[in-house]
Each structure stands twice: as C-alpha cells, then as structure tokens.
Design goal:
single chain; alpha/beta; Peroxisomal Thiolase, Chain A, domain 1; 9-stranded mixed β-sheet; two-stranded antiparallel sheet; 14 helices; globular
C-alpha cells in the first residue's frame, strides 16, 4: 500500500448501555466488536489488527484476550493507544498508520468497561497513588468532579461563567439524546431543571457531570479503496493529531500550567491542518464531555472561538439540534453513554453516513472528534468520501 493511501472507518457497533451490566466486560466488548465487524459487511477472519486505549480500564480486557474471544486466527498488529478518551480517538490514527505501513489490512478498535457496577466508580484507582492518598485526599481534593470544579472556578475568575452557560451545554446534550434511541438519559431538561439539580462540587451540579454506566463500543478501519466496496459509505480519516502535557495524570489536576488550557490547543489545529481544513469547514463536533466545563474549554482550544469566549459561544442553542455547530449529536458522555469517547466516533461515522434520522445534521460533510484524557488529547477529523 502506498504511503499516500487513505483509510476510512467502515463499521461501527456497540452494546446496550446500562447502569448495571451483569455480564463480564469481555462479553460485552465481543458483542460490540462483532456488531462493528458485521456492520462493515466483514468477518472476524478479515481482521488482522486490534487496538485499545492504554489507561487502566481496558486492562480488564486486553487485546490478546479480546482477540481470542473473537476467534481471531492472526493479529500481527496489536497495540495500546493513549489515555482514556484521547486514546480511543488516537486509536483511529494508529489503525490508519498500521494500514498505511502495511502492518495490517483491517483494524478493530474497541473499548468496554463495567465500572458503573463498581461501587468505587471508574476512577477508584486514583486512591492507589501515594501523592493523592497522602496529600490530596486528606484535604478533600479527590475525584473528577472536584478536579473539574477547580477548573470551572478558575475560568469563572478569569473570564466570568454563569450557571446558565454551563447549563446550556447540559441542555444541548440532553436535547440531542432525546433524538437518539438507546441514550441513557432522555428525560426532558430545561435550564430551570438543570439549575434545580443538586450541587456536586461548586459550581458543578449533577447534570454537569457525565454518566457512570456500563457498556462497550467498537469500530473498524480499513483502506479507503477497499472501503468503497463495502456495505456503507466510508467515513474517511482526513486528519489527526495528538498532544500531551509534561505532567502525569497523578499531578495534572494540581500542577498543570496553564491550568485551563487543554492540549486540544495543539491537537485541534494540527488535526485540521493535517486534513487541509479549518474550523469553518466543520459541520458538527463530537467533543469529550466528561463535564460541561471540559466541553467549553475544548471548543475554545480547538479554535471554534477565542479563549474566554466559550461560555458565551454555547449559549442560544448554538450547539444543540439545529444550531450553527451541533456538538455531541448523540448526547455525549453527559446524556448518552460513558464509553470514554468511543461512541463519539460511532456517532460521527453515522452522521457522515447520513443515517441518524431525526438527529441527522443536514448536509454533514466534515466532522471533528476531540478526545480528552488528561494529560493527553487527540483530535480526529473525518469527512465523507469526496
């Protein structure tokens, strides 16, 4: 395969999402993987590469075990990506690179977790870090709501941040979810009901915080030439980039500098440049929304608006259904599911196929997926085949 050959995502799949999944995580990962392979019109025997993200969560289902449960005969390309949501997005680029280099022809990317069933939650492993356990936790600095509340407070201090602006992100996500079958939260939300939700860590309320549920999602990448002969219109991988912080996850939330600028400030512009596109070309964005403030920060850092302008940018329905820039068109981590950003890619593929029914973004040609996994970030730009 020539170095200039492009690749595309040709199959997507996912399990049902639920608060408590009784099945083992490997079983639901295999379910999602088989669904993605079938969606592409392929067989397990066609898959010769496999990638997952690299944090502690998928260690519950490492690539060799998933491959064995799928019945893969050969997997000459096996790899782990970056942390969390960044890793699931960057995994698409790793698959792209492997195919371009001739290391594999068709690569499966997966993520699954059952931490919704874990009473400690998805980040209970943080307590194993001696610095957190010895210094941070005794004074109450523990857990993602606290970490991101600190960022929201700093943003409020520097630029101003009204509760209704955070609420605009949560309401938009819920409006998208209400148009999406299978979304976990579909009850109507208004600014009034958002403001009435309990305060978790000032200024973040319950609906500023992402879901904690069980599930799995997967997608399949292959060469564009081959993709054109498969079942669905290909979602072309047009550009991608990654960026990191010099801090580890264990120290990022207290020592990051600058504190409220994410690595998306580098990965976003670089991915768009890689695709030969600008923010003005993007028809919709799927942005890692672990908290409402993280959506605002990444929209700024990718370049959709200036620094300090994100809180105003999300107002007035701009990022909701029918808005100028629909964001998280399935409901995101806030209202759809929590598979650490993998369904953000599934959603982008379906939007580019034009198969989202009532939730379809009209004339969607270019989609951007932003994956956050502090201290890592990755951005993926996909287009229709054109």
């Amino acid at each position: 395969m020539s170095a200039g050959s492009r690749t595309a995502i040709v199959g997507v799949g996912h399990s049902d999402y639920s608060r408590r999944e009784p099945r083992p995580v490997k079983q639901i990962i295999v379910e999602a993987a088989l669904a993605a392979i079938a969606d592409a019109g392929l067989e397990v025997a066609d898959i010769d590469g496999i990638v997952s993200e690299a944090s502690m969560m998928p260690m519950m289902a490492p690539v060799d075990s998933v491959a064995a449960h799928l019945g893969m005969a050969e997997r000459p390309y096996s790899a782990y990506s970056m942390i969390g949501g960044a890793g699931n997005v960057w995994a698409a680029k790793m698959a792209d690179t492997a195919i371009r280099a001739g290391l594999a022809s068709t690569v499966l990317v997966y993520f699954g977790q059952t931490y919704g069933s874990d009473p400690g939650g998805p980040y209970s492993f943080h307590k194993e870090d001696p610095f957190r356990a010895g210094v941070e936790m005794p004074v109450g600095w523990y857990g993602p709501p606290i970490y991101f509340a600190g960022m929201a407070q700093r943003y409020k201090h520097d630029y101003g941040l009204a509760p209704e602006q955070l609420g605009a992100v949560a309401v938009a996500a819920r409006e998208h979810a209400r148009l999406t079958p299978g979304a976990v939260r579909q009850q109507e939300m208004t600014i009034e009901s958002y403001l009435a939700s309990p305060m978790i860590a000032d200024p973040l309320r319950l609906f500023d915080c992402c879901l904690n549920i069980d599930g799995a999602a997967a997608f399949v990448v292959t060469a564009l030439e081959r993709a054109r002969d498969l079942r669905h219109p290909p979602a072309v991988i047009a550009g991608a980039a990654a960026a990191t912080s010099p801090k580890a996850m264990t120290s990022y939330y207290t020592q990051a500098d600058p504190y409220i600028t994410t690595p998306a400030s580098r990965s976003g512009p670089a991915a768009l440049a890689d695709a030969g596109l600008g923010v003005e070309d993007v028809d919709f964005a799927e942005v890692y929304d672990c908290f409402t403030i993280s959506t605002i920060l990444q929209l700024e850092d990718v370049g959709f608006c200036g620094k300090g302008e994100g809180a105003a940018f999300v107002e007035g329905g701009r990022i909701g259904p029918g808005g100028a820039l629909p964001v998280n068109t399935h409901g995101g981590l806030l209202s759809h599911s929590y598979v650490v950003g993998t369904h953000h890619i599934v959603e982008a593929v379906e939007q580019l196929r034009g198969t989202r029914g009532a939730a379809q973004v009209p004339r969607a040609e270019v989609g951007l997926v932003a994956g956050l996994g502090y201290p890592d970030h990755s951005t993926l730009v996909m287009t229709r085949d054109r």
